[in-house]
Amino acid sequence: MNRRVFIGRAAVGLTAIAAAKDVLGNADPIYGHHGLFYRQVKGWGVLDANRFPVNDCHEMVQDSRGRIFLLTNETRNNVLIYDTKGRLKASWGKEYPGAHGLSIAGEGSDQFLLITDTEKHQVYKTTLDGRVLMTLDYPQEAEIYANKDAYVPTETAVAPNGDIYVADGYGQQYILHYGADGKLKGWFGGRGEGDRFLDNAHGIAIDQRAGKPTLLVTDRTRCCFKRFSLAGELLEIIDLPGAGVCRPVIHGDRLYAAVLRSPDMNQANSGFVTILDKANKVVANIGGTEPIYEGGKLQVMTQSSPLFAHPHDVCVDKDENIYVAQWASGKVYPYKFERVAGKN
């Protein structure tokens, strides 16, 4: 695979390349822009595929102990647990054929996972070792679905008060709002043409960077994130032209996302990873073109090197290293990208 360094256009490119060489002192490929540079850790997380196989590597999270949890729809081991060096620590799960969304919430020993299953049309709250604590079935009581097959949940997010939000990203495009006890409290969104509606509401996250928590929801077909209040009021649209983004991942002041395809959803093997700052401005892409703003408007972004096929999720550790899980990419294990030391 030709993994060349891609660092910007001429105006900032020479400075960025020189800075990368000064810090690294070697010729390893470096990816990124505007002070955010990364090097791939070759061979990270690769296991014996006969004993610990993966199919689609859908999502990854890190627990309070620093362990990395990978969710795959391979039913010989739905969950693989790594340390940050890529060594397998544990595995579990054989009952989630449509394993898709993986979220983590809670504190310390009270942390728990939320798993969405697109084939079973359910959401599961589990302990970190896989014991099921609660199951959210399809919301029949809402009377917005003809049957359970019309409900295909892809992602979850947990509010500060414990309420659970479920994105029906492969179904009717609603955001379902549950109490911490699993009782349905409401819904918003749904399929439609206006701004408040959604199309491929693939991911959802709680964003507290501005203080008051809000919901960031993926509108992947339209290449944007939409910000809603916790009550479902549309507050903002973050346009990302050319980027068919998966779920938003908040880490510190930045927003990270895997871009499944670019410049549109019909272009296979064309993904990259995008990084936004607190002002929701794209500052760097890994495997993608430099983000360029003209007249305050972000220009179309595309893949710049064939580093990824279909990146599906990112996980960011405490050292700001990035882990990338991929869908339909030849059953590859996750990739790790080290943040280049000395860059801000």
Automatic annotation (TrEMBL):
Molecular function (Gene Ontology), one example: monooxygenase activity
Superkingdom, taxonomy of origin: Bacteria
Key words of the record: Monooxygenase, Oxidoreductase
Keyword check for Oxidoreductase: yes
UniProt-recorded name of the protein: Peptidylglycine monooxygenase
Organism whose genome encodes this protein: Parapedobacter pyrenivorans
